[in-house]
Amino acid sequence: MQRSVIIDCDPGVDDCIALLAALGAPEQIDLRAICVVAGNVPVDTCARNARGVLALAGREDIPVYSGCDRPMQVDPVFAEHIHGASGLGDAKLPESTVTPATLGAVDYLCETLGQAEPASITLVITGPMTNFATALQRDPNIVEAVREVVIMGGASVEGGNITPHAEFNIFADPDAAAIVLASACPTVLIGLDATLQIRCTPPRMSELEASSHPACHAAAEMIAHVNRIYGEVYGAEGAALHDPCTIGYLLAPELYDLVSVSAKVDCSGGERRGQTVITPAQSSGLQWVTGLRDGPLFDLLVRHMERV
After folding, report:
1. What is the C-alpha separation between 123 and 127, in angstroms, rounded?
2. pTM to 2 decimals?
3. Contacts of 125 (CB under 8 A, 6+ apart)
4. What is the pLDDT of residues 243-264, one digit of tens each?
5. pLDDT by residue (tens digit) across 80-116?
6. Nearest-CA neighbor of 265 among 186, 180, 151?
7. What CA–CA distances, in Å, run from 112 to 3, 28, 47, 135, 290?
8. CA–CA separation, 238 and 197 (whole Å)
9. Which domains does the chain have, with CATH numbers?
């Protein structure tokens, strides 16, 4: 069954791969819009990258709305040391020829969700949650239009990837994360405990590089850069495909293991800023992904990128 989907992201290498996979699944995902937020790179760079993905896919009919250029309370932090200054690693995407949207992402979310039927729109968030949190503060009633929020963020068993305690998306705007995770929206949270299970290892890189599809070729160029950084910074073989796990969940939820939880976000300015404390909770509207089937998931993502 097709979902109406808005993706709120900070492209970023793995955000771009998530977008490409979503664009390759039109029977299941009706992508209404892309909202961007400052995160991996500044918001203007994120907007250019999102529009470049749409140009590559021949889908510039989908609008891109630029959102918040800084977190709600804390100072901005970026991840250019991982994604490169362009946010795209070694890849170059086509330049968009479409005039950028003038409406801001927060205004778009408030207007669209405010006018939508109850439980009709799925929101996928693969960056800091600043846009949606700001929209919720402006109009709390927009939660009624949300069918589900699927988020890449957080960590429990795995600790963090920006500090020993925090995952980057939560660390970048913990106040926004706390607002969203405390909302009444049905939510699936996919953190490092799950995303670190799917890595773009050398055999998988070879598969992408061997593909004749432009989307897979672009993905391989992006990931090659991150793979080098992962080896240098983390001593790991193969970058984790964090953000595409959200799209994989929409396409094949049976590949994921979920438990009902509550989540508390550390919004202090101390060493545990951005830490997510995940606690089992019965009858919770928040689902935490504990595991996934990485082989079938990787194949699924590649198969949909090859349809772009």
Report:
1. 12
2. 0.98
3. 7, 8, 9, 132, 149, 150, 151, 152, 153, 180, 246
4. 999 999 999 999 999 999 999 9
5. 989 999 999 989 999 999 999 999 999 999 999 999 9
6. 180
7. 15, 20, 19, 11, 32
8. 11
9. 3-305 (3.90.245.10)
Q: Which residues belong to the active site?
A: 242
Cβ-based neighbour number of residue 283 at 10 Å: 5
Contact 176, 154 (CB under 8 A): no
Residue type, 291: G
Report the alpha-carbon distance of residue 116 to residue 168 in Å, rounded.
31
The answer to whether 262 and 154 have CB atoms below 8 angstroms apart is no
* Spatial CA neighbour of 152 closest among 191, 101, 97: 191
From the list 126, 170, 184, 183, the residue with the least C-alpha distance to 267 is 170
Whose structure tokens read 């795209």?
88
* Cβ atoms of 19 and 27 closer than 8 Å: no
Secondary structure of the chain in the HEC alphabet?
A: CCEEEEEEECCCHHHHHHHHHHHCCCCCEEEEEEEECCCCCCHHHHHHHHHHHHHHHCCCCCCEEECCCCCCCCCCCCCHHHHCCCCCCCCCCCCCCCCCCCCCHHHHHHHHHHHCCCCCEEEEECCCCHHHHHHHHHCHHHHHHEEEEEEECCCCCCCCCCCCCCCHHHHHCHHHHHHHHCCCCCEEEECHHHHCCCEECHHHHHHHHHCCCHHHHHHHHHHHHHHHHHHHHCCCCCEECCCHHHHHHHHCHHHEEEEEEEEEECCCCCCCCCCEEEEECCCCCEEEEEEECHHHHHHHHHHHHCCC
- Mean pLDDT is lowest, of 39-48, 83-92, 165-174, 226-235, for 226-235
The first and second tokens of residue 94, run together, are 């086509």
Phi and psi angles of residue 232, each rounded to the nearest 5 degrees, phi first = -75, -45
CA–CA dist 137, 126 (Å, integer): 20
